[in-house]
Amino acid sequence: MMSSTAPCQWHDGANVKLHEAMRARRLAEEQVQHSSRTHRHTARENITKYQNLHDSFEKKRGATNHLSGILQERAQSLNKTIAATQRSLEALRSAERAKDRPLELNRFRFETRNKRPSCERVRDPFELALEEEQEQLRTAQRLLNGNAKKTEAALNTLGRMLDDIHFDHDHKEHGQQIDEQCLGRTHAAWPSRGDVRVGMLKHGLASPKGTLKAAASLGLQASGMVSLRVPSEAVERVAAPNLEQEERRHHNTARNALLAKEAERASSQLGTETNALLQQTEADCRRALEKVERTMAHRIEECTIIKEKIKKAILDTRNQIQRTVRTMQRTETEIHHHEEPAELCTTRDAFRSSRKRHENIEDPVSTAMHYHKQGLQKGANLLGSCNGHENRVLQELERARRQLEADLADKEMAIDLDIKCQQRRV
């Protein structure tokens, strides 16, 4: 059978196949070159992103350590402030309770003095001092109670602040542990072989710290590594919100620490006010008590002096009564002594009236007897009047004695009650 293909056609067919094979090889070589460039690019990008990620972890760890340190320092300061505030509150409550005993003593003295006789119930300096002390004690308790409520509110605020600080610190510690776990997990090997990534593995790229060194030894440009905020619009849209959240995290921690610090400053200022209030109320109440003790002693001394005067007046009055009684007895004796001469005059008149008519005349004897009668009558009248005055004086003396004795009894009772008040102590 004869061949139908000419030699020229055979050569042309072979040449076409050779050209196609050459074109395929050229395309393949171009593809190999393109793939190699792609491999290097993707490796470089991987190294860059890997290093950026590692740097981000390091920065995040450093920032978290810094924030945790701030929170821990603030928590320690808060604990000290809470302890100081608690001691301040206990001092306030103790001082407030300490005013109960003086108030009880004050009420006892008021109630005891109310038992005085009505004539002894006067608003003397002692009673005014008791009223002043009572007002001072109640004012002190009111001020201490108000300051204690403020301190309790400050303690509650500090407690909430401490809870917030602990909450934030615990979360940051947990986040730090997660970041540490992430930093501890590195590439054990690059999954490709026969290309640049095998060389990277040989140069220590399995560790993030060897990334830059490996990239430089393999001719990869690491200087083009970018920071977290890549100047790419697409990446920026993702990075910006994330960066904003990180900044918000820093801001929230700083705000909590600042609020806690302000609460501590306010609590410290309140503690200073509390110390001043404790000293002031203690000094005021002490002065009020000293005034009560001073006026009470003066009142007892004053009443004792008056009592001694009354005793002396009673003794003098009794002596005067005795003298008056003796005088009245003498007056009555003198009156009795006038009765016999008067009877004698009457008898003599009777005798002389029996004289004879020519002898029954008014002679000098009659004149003398007349004057004698008048003298006796005048003396009797004077003695009677004197006796009447003596009776009235005696009654007045007796009334004065009874009044003095009653007043003495009232004074003694008042003094006894005041002494009872003086002997009662806090």
Written description of the protein model:
- The chain is mainly α and 426 residues long.
- The chain folds into 2 domains: 42-219 and 229-292, Substrate Binding Domain Of Dnak, Chain:A, Domain 2 (Up-down Bundle), CATH 1.20.1270; 309-349 and 366-423.
- It is built from 7 helices and no strands.
- It has helices at 7-98, 100-113, 125-184, 196-202, 211-217, 233-353, 364-423.
- The longest helix has 121 residues, at 233-353.
- The model is unreliable at 193-209 and 214-230 (pLDDT under 50).
Q: What is the average of the pLDDT values?
A: 85
- The top-level CATH class of the largest domain is Mainly Alpha
Total strands: 0
Shape descriptor reads rod-shaped
Alpha plus pi helix count: 7
Number of domain modules: 2
Helical fraction: over 70%
Structural class: mainly alpha
**Can you summarize the main beta sheet?**
none
**Rg for CA atoms:** 63 Å
Q: Beta fraction of the residues?
A: under 5%
Any guess at the CATH architecture of the largest domain?
Up-down Bundle
